[in-house]
């Protein structure tokens, strides 16, 4: 029987791998390893470095190229569906090539945790596997690493927080009734459009990695610096993964 392990690997720091993740990767007959075009090739190298540390040889790694998502038009939902279909087809082609018997243990390394703002589970559902054939190994999230790096608590005492995306923040604004926001997947610097200049921002990029960047302060005071550092880092590395927490003034960190 084919078993698919979706393994959360945190932010790329080998020390963030759980023992469960290590066991799942070491025990895999095949590891699916995606490659993105252009300057994002470094992302595959981070995964390869993790595999090398776990003594996973090249003969157990199936490399495949990630398809590009269509970005023309305003049908965002349809674009994502098409993209996920294409990724699932790449997975199936790799499995057919490397595990022609249709059985074995397959691992796919997922940034952060497979359950938080990641579509690997949705893509896996397209393979038609039974529920017991898909195993999820939780991982450390960038949200956890961000709070740890800044030395702050995620929530205020007895208060809720909201995890959202840059797109939602731009289109819907700061939601009522919530004083702490964690914003992910923000390639458009949506913090620049927040109309609460006294809010605090705790920003981090490449969390847990040697090139980690951190900035904190009053939003109106540091937003421009964050944007500048972000642009410089993206130019230097060809890619950037960042996340930030916004908190209204008067709330405890």
TrEMBL record:
Q: Domain of life of the organism in this record?
A: Bacteria
Gene Ontology MF: a single term: precorrin-6A synthase (deacetylating) activity
Q: What class of enzyme is it?
A: transferase
Pathway in which the depicted protein is active? Cofactor biosynthesis; adenosylcobalamin biosynthesis
* InterPro entries listed in its UniProt record: 4pyrrol_Mease, 4pyrrol_Methylase_sf, 4pyrrole_Mease_sub1, 4pyrrole_Mease_sub2, CobF
One GO BP annotation is: cobalamin biosynthetic process
* Enzyme Commission number(s) of this protein: 2.1.1.152
The Tetrapyrrole methylase domain is annotated at: 4-222
Does S-adenosyl-L-methionine count among this protein's keywords? yes
Pfam families from the UniProt entry: TP_methylase
Task: For this UniProt record, give its keywords in alphabetical order, as a comma-separated list.
Answer: Cobalamin biosynthesis, Methyltransferase, S-adenosyl-L-methionine, Transferase
NCBIfam families membership = CobF
Q: What is this protein called?
A: Precorrin-6A synthase (Deacetylating)
Native organism: Comamonas antarctica
Its lineage reads: Bacteria, Pseudomonadati, Pseudomonadota, Betaproteobacteria, Burkholderiales
């Amino acid at each position: 029987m084919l078993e698919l392990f979706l393994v959360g690997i945190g932010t790329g720091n080998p020390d963030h791998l759980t023992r469960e993740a290590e066991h799942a990767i070491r025990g895999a007959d095949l590891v699916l390893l995606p490659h993105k075009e252009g300057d994002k090739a470094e992302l595959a190298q981070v995964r390869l470095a993790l595999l090398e540390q776990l003594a996973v040889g090249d003969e157990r790694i199936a490399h495949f190229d990630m398809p590009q998502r269509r970005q023309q038009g305003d049908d965002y939902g349809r674009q994502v569906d098409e993209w996920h279909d294409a990724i699932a087809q790449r997975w199936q082609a790799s499995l057919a090539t490397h595990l022609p018997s249709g059985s074995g243990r397959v691992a796919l390394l997922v940034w952060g945790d497979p359950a938080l703002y990641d579509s690997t589970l949705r893509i896996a559902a397209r393979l038609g596997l039974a529920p017991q054939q898909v195993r999820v190994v939780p991982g450390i999230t960038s949200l956890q690493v961000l709070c740890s790096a800044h030395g702050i608590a995620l929530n205020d005492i007895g208060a809720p927080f909201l995890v959202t995306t840059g797109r939602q923040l731009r289109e819907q604004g700061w939601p009522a009734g919530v004083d702490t926001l964690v914003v992910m997947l923000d390639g458009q610097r949506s913090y620049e459009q927040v109309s609460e200049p006294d809010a605090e921002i705790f920003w981090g990029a490449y969390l847990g990695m040697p090139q980690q960047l951190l900035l904190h302060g009053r939003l109106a005071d540091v937003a421009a610096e964050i944007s500048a550092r972000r642009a410089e880092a993206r130019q230097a590395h060809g890619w950037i993964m960042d996340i930030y927490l916004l908190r209204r003034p008067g709330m405890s960190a």
